Amino acid sequence: MRNSGTAKGATGTVQSVDRAISVLELLAQHGEAGITEIAAELGVHKSTASRLVAALEARHLVEQLGQRGKYAIGFGVVRLAGAAMGRLDLAKLGNQTCRMLAESLGETVNIAVADGGVAINISQAFGSAAVSAQNWTGRRTPLHATSSGKVLLAYMSESDRGPLLREPLERYTPRTTVVPDTLRAELGRVRHDGYAASFEELEVGMHAVAVPVYGADGQVIAAISASGPSYRLSRDRVAQVVRPLAEAATELSSQLGHFPR
């Protein structure tokens, strides 16, 4: 039987979130508003409105305008919007990059981002030599068993990466790295070399290589990879593919506002 106190608490939390969103929408519509106006619009007591605004202000989502008691949208919202636009720009610009690379390399090219402990492919293009037209766009793939995933793992903060490297790591083929310490050592080499490879670690007979894509803040926000059958994308050819991948990633990063020092 559900605890009534817990249920009421959850309902209250959802209501508070809904009201906080209403505050942001109100300020977006009117430009500025005081506590009295916000309370009247939401149909709540002024003390409730004040607590909502204080919580939003603590996250820089709203800010007080001088000493007038009025509040407006804060720069925290701009930061969140910028992150969303960056993702949209990445997908849009990435499509062009994928097509260009796929045409020059003849292999399948993907761009992936980290999402909830997995890699999700947001752009894809097929090269003329692609054996099959398997659509990976929107598909989630394991970080530890793919070249893109290893790039994303390698450049994560330790606080984000740590929980993802706990045993047991799932084995997809006999070549999948499932020992966390072994994977950690490989991620160190990825950071040193600037690229990651996957040799039949997700699918038997499939090789892939990936490099990082940087955002305007200098952080790695995605990985761009080329994949193909092991008989054609051999280990020697993987080493040759790194350079054109890296050049394309540098160009894409610059389009996203990243300029290395």
Automatic annotation (TrEMBL):
Alphabetical UniProt keywords: DNA-binding, Transcription, Transcription regulation
Signal sequence, renumbered to the chain: none
Residues covered by the IclR-ED domain: 76-258
Taxonomy, superkingdom: Bacteria
GO biological process: one example: negative regulation of DNA-templated transcription
Segments forming a coiled coil: none
Record-annotated HTH iclR-type domain positions: 14-75
InterPro entries in UniProt: GAF-like_dom_sf (IPR029016), HTH_MetabolicPath_Reg (IPR050707), Tscrpt_reg_IclR_C (IPR014757), Tscrpt_reg_IclR_N (IPR005471), WH-like_DNA-bd_sf (IPR036388), WH_DNA-bd_sf (IPR036390)
Gene Ontology MF: a single term: DNA-binding transcription factor activity
Name the UniProt record assigns to this protein: IclR family transcriptional regulator
Organism: Saccharomonospora piscinae
